[in-house]
Specification:
366 residues, mainly beta, Porin, twelve-stranded antiparallel barrel, 15 strands, 13% helix, disordered N terminus
Length: 366
C-alpha cells in the first residue's frame, strides 16, 4: 500500500510537471519545502539538514519558525513479528518477552514508541545574499495515543497488523539485539529534554540556467552539554546542502541534495562515523493567494551498515512522503503536513504529523 502511495505521488508530480508553465514567477509568492527533519528513531540524534525556505528576505530581515512534529513508530524484525503472532491477548513487554526475543534465531529488534519534536529556528539576513540561522530543539519520548487509531485503520482496510495486537497499546519498548550491541528498554530512560543546537549559514546569490535559483548552506550540530542518552551523541556533525528552486506563476519546484558527516554514536547501539546523503524533491502550488499545497519526498540511507547489523530492514534506505498545506496571515505562516512511510516499513515511523508557525516581515503580502 505504501509503495502504491509512493507511485501515485510520483505520478502526481509528473502530471503537474506537464501542467506547470515556464513563465517567470516571483519567489516571494512561494513558501518552499516543509522545514521538518527526519524523526526516524534509528539515527534520530544525527544532524539532518532542514529544507530551505523560498521566501525572499531582504538584507537585515529576520524570522522565527516553530515546528512541532509528532510520529508513531512500530518497527520490528520478521522473527519478532512471527513470535508476536503466536501470542494471545495483550501484554506489556517485559523480561520474559525479552528472553524469548533474544532466543529467536539471528538478530532481532522491536521499537514501539511515539516521539514529539519541537524546533525553534531563528534566522537573520546579514546582506542580500548571506544569512544565518540557529535551531534549538526539544524532544519528548513516550507511548503516546495513536496506537488505537492506527490499528483501527489497518483493520478497516485489511492491512496486516504487524504483531501490534500482542502488545499493550500506547506502551514503550525499545529492544535491539544486533551483532554489535544489545539494548533493552521497557521505558525510555528519559521522558525528553533539549537536543544539540544546530548553527548554519546560507548563501543565495547563485542561479542555474535561466530558471533555477540556487541556495547553498552549511551547518553543524554542536554537543554543548556532552553525551546524553536519547538526547545527544556527544559528537559534532557537519553538513552541506544545495537547493534548486524554480518558480512559475502558480507552481514551484524544489530539488535539495545534502551530505552530512555523521560522527557516529557511542549510545545504546553504537555505530561508526560516515557520510550520509539525502535527497528531497518537492512541488508547491497555489490554491489561493494565501493558501498553498506542498507535496514532497525524502530519500536517505540508514545510519546502520553491514558492520553494525546483518538485518536488511535496519540497513535499508528510508523513503518518506509528505503532503502539507500553508496558509499566510499577514506576516505569519501556518503549516500542517502528514508524513507517511513509503517503503521499508520497519525502519521509519508508520505516520507523522507536523504543525508549524513562522513569523517574518518578509511574509507580509506586498
Amino acid at each position: 500500500m505504501r509503495t502504491l502511495l509512493g507511485c501515485c505521488s510520483l505520478a502526481l508530480l509528473g502530471l503537474t510537471a506537464q501542467v506547470a508553465t515556464a513563465a517567470d514567477g516571483d519567489s516571494g509568492d512561494f513558501f518552499g519545502l516543509l522545514r521538518a527533519r527526519d524523526i526516524t528513531p534509528f539515527g534520530f540524534l544525527r544532524l539532518d539538514m532542514r529544507p530551505t525556505h523560498a521566501v525572499a528576505v531582504p538584507s537585515g530581515g529576520w524570522g522565527v519558525e516553530m515546528e512541532l512534529a509528532y510520529q508513531n513508530t512500530w518497527a520490528l524484525s520478521p522473527e519478532v513479528e512471527r513470535y508476536l503472532g503466536t501470542l494471545q491477548g495483550r501484554r506489556e513487554i517485559g523480561p520474559d518477552e525479552l528472553a524469548a526475543i533474544r532466543a529467536l534465531p539471528g538478530e532481532n529488534y522491536l521499537a514501539d514508541l511515539e516521539l514529539a519534536l519541537l524546533d525553534v529556528t531563528f534566522q537573520y539576513k546579514f546582506s542580500s545574499q548571506w544569512g544565518a540561522y540557529l535551531v534549538l530543539s526539544g524532544v519528548h519520548y513516550g507511548g503516546g495515543f495513536l496506537d488505537s487509531s492506527i490499528e483501527s485503520f489497518h483493520d478497516t482496510f485489511g492491512f496486516s497488523d504487524f504483531g501490534r495486537p500482542a502488545v499493550v497499546r500506547n506502551g514503550t519498548s525499545y529492544i535491539l539485539d544486533l551483532k554489535n550491541s544489545q539494548v533493552a528498554l521497557f521505558d525510555a530512560p528519559t521522558s525528553g529534554g533539549l537536543l544539540d543546537p544546530t548553527i548554519g549559514v546560507r548563501y543565495s546569490g547563485l542561479t542555474f540556467g535561466k530558471d533555477w535559483q540556487v541556495i547553498l548552506e552549511g551547518a553543524t550540530k554542536v554537543p554543548v552539554r556532552g553525551r546524553r542518552d536519547l538526547l545527544s551523541t556527544g559528537r559534532s556533525d557537519y553538513g552541506v546542502q544545495m537547493t534548486l528552486q524554480k518558480f512559475g506563476k502558480r507552481h514551484a519546484w524544489y530539488l535539495a541534495g545534502s551530505a552530512v558527516y555523521y560522527a557516529g554514536s557511542p549510545n545504546f547501539a553504537p555505530n561508526d562515523g560516515k557520510i550520509i546523503p539525502t535527497l528531497l524533491v518537492g512541488y508547491e502550488r497555489h490554491l489561493t493567494g494565501n493558501t498553498h499545497v506542498i507535496l514532497q519526498g525524502y530519500v536517505s540511507p540508514s545510519v546502520y551498515s553491514d558492520r553494525d547489523t546483518d538485518l536488511d530492514e535496519l540497513r535499508a534506505t528510508k523513503f518518506q512522503g509528505s503532503l502539507g498545506i500553508y496558509h499566510r496571515i499577514g506576516a505569519g505562516l501556518i503549516s500542517f503536513a502528514v508524513t507517511e512511510n513509503l517503503q521499508n516499513l520497519n525502519n521509519t515511523p508508520d505516520i507523522g504529523f507536523q504543525l508549524g508557525f513562522a513569523l517574518a516581515p518578509a511574509l507580509r503580502e506586498k
